[in-house]
Amino acid sequence: MTIRPATPADLPAIRRLWQENRHSFLTCGLEDVPGLLGKAGVAVGALPGEGAGVWGFVAFDAPAPNAVAGSLADGALRALVIGRSLPPGASAEGLIGQAIVAVAAAGQPFQLTALPDESWLERLLIGQGFAVADHLYFYQRTRRNLPAATTGPALFRPLRPDELTALTALDAAAFPPLWRMTHAELLELIFTCRVQAAEMDGELAGYAAISLHTAQERNDESQAQLARLAVHPAWQGQGIGRQLLIESIAHAHAHGCYRISLNTPESNPNAQRLYESLHFRRHGARRPVLVFKKKREA
């Protein structure tokens, strides 16, 4: 039984495993796998014999340095695929454990996060040192009527490309460490979403990021995803978050997207009350947020 770093030569075997397996957890597509191979935290369990294939594949994002002082470098579980039959001595626990060891070999403090959607994965990860740090609630709004517009103090405008540093600072102030986005994640958000800024006294006070997915076929439904909503603590309590949310709903409706989805932590009851006040309703089961932390040794 061999567990080793995954390399580009393993891609054909990983593709076969991707198609036929017993368990799988995927937050990426098969087209993303080549970009993961060869990185720390990406491993395969190889079947005995030359060219026999692989019985398991695991991929953690290599932890990226967080731009926020005091935050750990953060990585996430992208994929775990376990085959239908395992050779003697092979285990999914061993595969995950070896991937974590590879990440830790860099010698730097880090954390890994995972959002398991099934109990088998939650048990595996907890067995390897992950702990439940929070839960996520999922919400949807399907009403076609617009909420009543509110007059608020903020000036709305598109986020400017040169405001990424200010956006990172705002995000760090608005969220606890577990939920902060890195500089790189916020840069991706800007490219993949429509980001509306709320300005107060010439300063960035809040923002909302929403992506639209318009139907390509007659029977499909156009949908929107509210990816982020944040208000700086210095400006909270003045209705800016509500303003941003109503404006985001109106933007989605203007593009024919009446099903709007979002998620929010269980630990943020204020956000839950805001969403529910505008007719977002919980959808599906809550999901645990698991975290593995490797801190600097004294």
Written overview of the protein:
This protein is an alpha+beta fold and 298 residues long. It folds into two domains: 2-129, Aminopeptidase, CATH 3.40.630; 138-289, Aminopeptidase (3-Layer(aba) Sandwich). It is built from eight helices and 14 strands. The chain has helices at residues 11-19, 33-36, 92-104, 119-127, 164-174, 183-192, 240-254, 269-277; strands spanning 2-5, 23-26, 42-46, 54-60, 73-82, 110-114, 131-141, 155-158, 194-200, 203-213, 223-231, 259-265, 281-282, 287-294. Strands 1, 2, 3, 4, 5, 6, 7, 8, 9, 10, 11, 12, 13 and 14 form a 14-stranded mixed β-sheet that branches. Strand 3 (42-46) and strand 4 form a beta hairpin. It is elongated, with a radius of gyration of 21 Å. The two termini are 35 Å apart. The model has no long low-confidence stretch (mean pLDDT 91).
Descriptive labels:
8 helices; 2 domains; 298 residues; Aminopeptidase; 14-stranded mixed β-sheet; alpha+beta; 14 strands
How would you briefly describe this protein structure?
The protein has 298 residues and is an alpha+beta fold.
Largest sheet: 14 strands, mixed
Write down the CATH topology of the largest domain: Aminopeptidase
The stretches of 5 or more residues where confidence is low (pLDDT under 50) are none
What's the total number of strands? Answer: 14
Number of H/I helices = 8
Give the DSSP E fraction (strand runs of 2 or more residues). Answer: 25-35%
> How many domain modules?
2
Q: Helix fraction?
A: 25-40%
**Quick one: CATH superfamily of the largest domain?**
Gcn5-related N-acetyltransferase (GNAT)
Shape designation:
elongated
- Rg value: 21 Å
Q: What is the SS-derived class?
A: alpha+beta
Assigned CATH class of the largest domain: Alpha Beta
Mean pLDDT: 91
